[in-house]
Amino acid sequence: MGTPLSRDPIAEARRNWEDHGWADVAAPMAAITAIMRTQQILLARIESTLKPFGLTFARYELLALLSFARKGSLPMNKASALLQVHPTSITNAVDRLERAGLVDRSPHPTDGRTTLIELTTAGRTLAKSSTAALNAEVFSAPGFDPGDVDHLIRILGSFRRNAGDFEE
Amino acid sequence: MGTPLSRDPIAEARRNWEDHGWADVAAPMAAITAIMRTQQILLARIESTLKPFGLTFARYELLALLSFARKGSLPMNKASALLQVHPTSITNAVDRLERAGLVDRSPHPTDGRTTLIELTTAGRTLAKSSTAALNAEVFSAPGFDPGDVDHLIRILGSFRRNAGDFEE
DNA sequence: TGAATATACTAGGACATCCAATGGTTGGGC
DNA sequence: GCCCAACCATTGGATGTCCTAGTATATTCA
């Protein structure tokens, strides 16, 4: 987004917090802000890799989820729960994927309320190739030390469990 | 967003990656996905805390940045660089903050291209009270172990430096 | 000095997310 | 057997982010 700054803006914010009498919460504030910024950087990389495939991250996630579904199809509310996004976001993503010929909607055989989504052949092919691209361009060189990757998975896993994402 | 899942969806995705021959990138994939989800959870908490103040996180960040500016004013391009967002996002945020009477725009005294933004009295008051709310409701109980907070700051700081956010 | 280049902000469009409200569909309790 | 609460998907509205273009101002250099 521009040239590197001479100093870390988050470290600067942390100093500001400490100087204003909020030293007790300065470190968590810095950690949370750093997560926000890291997500932004990673998302930009992912979107840039997916762009040639005509996909956004939201649509890719749905495509990938469907490609792993045993039956090849998934109810929309199930997708919403697994991807942890609002149902309307799924509706939006399916609208666009369907218009692009990558998924199909079909009524649930026994429950008239739910809609099933299923990959088309083109969708399955694109899921494969875009995943290969993400693996090669993003996940294989994420910018973390290998040891830090395990730390992150543990720390964030614990956080998500405490936040009520899952039990276990 | 719903009831807790019985299993961690990210751990599940990691297993899927390993089962499909991508074991070498499964762990970074899981870490990156966890960062995405963690950011989503934290952002929701922050937005919920800021809602009573009529602020969003984007507008709050700008307000907080201005409240720490020595001169009390900041060029828009400077704000864009420090918050690491696109210049048009700053324009958008300033539009709304200005309409709410929280900031003012004024022309730069010597450079006719740049616009300065400055807190109004109401803006300064709101910056204080909303920061107090965030400190009390989010940063004081972030959901991380104290030791993990330092780990995160170090790991993510290193990542951001490698990504070109800042030098040093 | 005058033209080419660089910088700063804004306007309009595409996309994603959430919330609130709507219209069907199910299924349990009486 | 019926009714109402719960559930599912969609629509419309608000916000935010980025991108591309366009306009205006500065700076550089021939």
Instruction: Report the portion of residues of chain A in β strands.
Output: 5-15%
| Overall CATH class of the largest domain in chain A | Mainly Alpha
Q: Count the beta strands of chain A.
A: 3
Determine the oligomeric state from the structure.
homodimer
Which chains have the largest interface? A-B, 71 and 71 residues
Main beta sheet strand tally, sense and closure of chain A = 3 strands, antiparallel
> Which H/E pattern describes the elements of chain A?
HHHEHHEEHH
Residue-averaged pLDDT of chain A, rounded? 94
Describe the global form of chain A.
elongated
Please identify which CATH superfamily of the largest domain in chain A we are dealing with. Winged helix-like DNA-binding domain superfamily/Winged helix DNA-binding domain
Cα-atom Rg of chain A, whole angstroms?
Answer: 20 Å
Query: Which second-level CATH architecture of the largest domain in chain A applies?
Result: Orthogonal Bundle
Across the major sheet of chain A, the strand order is: 1-3-2
Might you state the CATH topology name of the largest domain in chain A? Arc Repressor Mutant, subunit A
Pfam families (chains A, B): MarR_2
Keywords (chains A, B): DNA-binding, Transcription, Transcription regulation
InterPro entries (chains A, B): HTH_MarR-typ, MarR/SlyA-like, Tscrpt_reg_MarR-type_CS, WH-like_DNA-bd_sf, WH_DNA-bd_sf
Protein name (chains A, B): DNA-binding MarR family transcriptional regulator
